[in-house]
């Protein structure tokens, strides 16, 4: 079984990546592999509506193939202007129900403010609905993300750390029930 995690930040030292790594670590305890696609490393061009799929650049074809082959997905986004980051939305524009229908999704958000990224996770829930995917209801968000992490990548707030780990556990459990 395999999960792909999409990290919607272009920063190498991304707090969203750190959050995704916590979920990945928990999922992998249950024998499920998680491949992280971090858009600081994988650069997808802007979605081009006039381009036929056969003419997509290799990086896009590989991206679509990876998502299609995964049994589940982790969507992790920083909140940008009250919504999903452009780079994640652009990546998802290449994806359709053909690749996502029936798949489980775990959603996490990070935010610079104390308010958290609830708008972002709500938007990702909507996107999942449109892709016919099944987002887990638990969708933790990390407020004041720049100050939220210890040097070892764990969260300073132990309860929040636990919520991310529980999300990973739930994703692994649900996946094992669905994918035989
Ligand atoms: C263009 C842009 C817009 C942002 N808009 C918001 C916002 O609306 N609300 C908020 O709380 N933080 C906002 N932030 C802060 C980011 O959400 C926050 O720093 C995030 O955790 C960064 O993620 P990263 O470390 O993975 O890059 C914004 C940052 C950028 C660069």
How would you describe this structure to a colleague?
By secondary structure, this protein is an alpha/beta fold. It has one domain: Flavodoxin domain (Rossmann fold, 3-Layer(aba) Sandwich), CATH 3.40.50. Helices cover 40% and strands 19% of the residues. The protein contains six helices and seven strands. The protein has helices at 15-28, 58-69, 86-93, 97-100, 118-130, 158-178, and strands at residues 2-7, 33-38, 72-80, 83-84, 104-110, 134-135, 141-142. Strands 1, 2, 3, 4, 5, 6 and 7 form a seven-stranded mixed β-sheet that branches. Strand 1 (2-7), helix 1 and strand 2 form a beta-alpha-beta unit. Helix 1 crosses helix 6 (158-178). The N and C termini lie close together (9 Å). Flavin mononucleotide (FMN) is lined by residues 9, 11, 14-16, 78-82, 110-113, 145-146. It comes from Anaerobacillus isosaccharinicus. This is Flavin reductase. One of its GO terms (molecular function) is oxidoreductase activity, acting on NAD(P)H. InterPro entries: Flavodoxin/NO_synth, Flavoprotein-like_sf, FMN_Rdtase-like_dom, NAD(P)H-dep_reductase.
Topology, element by element:
Elements: E1 2-7, H1 15-28, E2 33-38, H2 58-69, E3 72-80, E4 83-84, H3 86-93, H4 97-100, E5 104-110, H5 118-130, E6 134-135, E7 141-142, H6 158-178
Parallel strand pairs: 1-2, 1-3, 3-5, 5-6, 5-7
Antiparallel strand pairs: 3-4
Bound molecules: flavin mononucleotide.
Sheet having the most strands? 7 strands, mixed
In total, the number of domains comes to 1
CATH topology: Rossmann fold
Portion in helices: 40-55%
SSE order, one letter for each helix or strand: EHEHEEHHEHEEH
GO cellular component, one term: cytosol
Protein name: Flavin reductase
Family: Belongs to the azoreductase type 2 family.
InterPro entries: Flavodoxin/NO_synth (IPR008254), Flavoprotein-like_sf (IPR029039), FMN_Rdtase-like_dom (IPR005025), NAD(P)H-dep_reductase (IPR050712)
